[in-house]
Amino acid sequence: MSTEKVVIGDHTIGDGSPVYVIAEIGLNHNGDVENAKKLIDVAVSAGAQAVKFQKRTPEIATPEHMKQTPRETPWGTMTYLEYRYRVEFEKPEYTEIAAYAKEKGVDWFASPWDEPSVDFLEEMGVTTHKVASASVTDLGMLRKLEATGKPIILSTGMSTIEQIDTAVEILGTDRLVLMHATSTYPLPPEEANLRTINTLKERYQVPVGYSGHEPGLQISIAAVALGAVAVERHITLDRTMWGSDHAASLEPHGFSNLVRDIRVIEKALGDGVKRVFPGELAPLSKLRRVDG
């Protein structure tokens, strides 16, 4: 069974519904709940419907060869594994985030990076799960996600069509949203390949959105014009902050402009039925020549 509409929380995702805008906070909170709350405020103020985080069990999700690699951080030099624990939110932080997101009227969820993180997010009562592009081939985790019965949003960056086929086969298509993505940071226009949005829609018959890592707004806006029904962008309080994702993120003003422009485009797309609009009647009576 396939569907071209999926319900997440109070929102319907699909053609004819408002574009579902996801503000990707990721790790841009730098391990600070107050930063996370400020970023939720940015998302809400801009008019996004959702905020997204990332959830890892560092011991499992950190590649073995990286664990002991030294990392310079604002808290001093530490191993990469120690750094991962330093910026990871656990139950107390996510309880606070869940309450804050609910108070602000915005969905919150996360990308689990390992199987225990799926259990953690289920305990936290998320509305949906997001599969990061890096996890498309983590078939064990995909099976665990499918078993939750929740809607799944699957990013497709750095994946072949065969790998996406396998993931879709596991997840099913009755509550799946695909996100076209290219996992180049920052994304150059020649790698955006936006026409893939339609390729994915035709192949899988599910709602398809766009997850972007480009500087600027044009490519995300064009994605909506090409039929993307959801848009995800990283947000930050300040692109010069310490951390790996800030530079490829939108600051509050840029994100606000993006959501504003998406809302204009979705209105402008219309229904494709050619008609004479009310605003045309006055010019028509003044300007139109009709030959007998």
Automatic annotation (TrEMBL):
PseI/NeuA/B-like domain segment(s): 39-274
GO molecular function: N-acylneuraminate-9-phosphate synthase activity
GO BP field: carbohydrate biosynthetic process
Coiled coil ranges: none
PANTHER family recorded: BLR5971 PROTEIN, N-ACETYLNEURAMINATE SYNTHASE
Protein name in UniProt: N-acetylneuraminate synthase
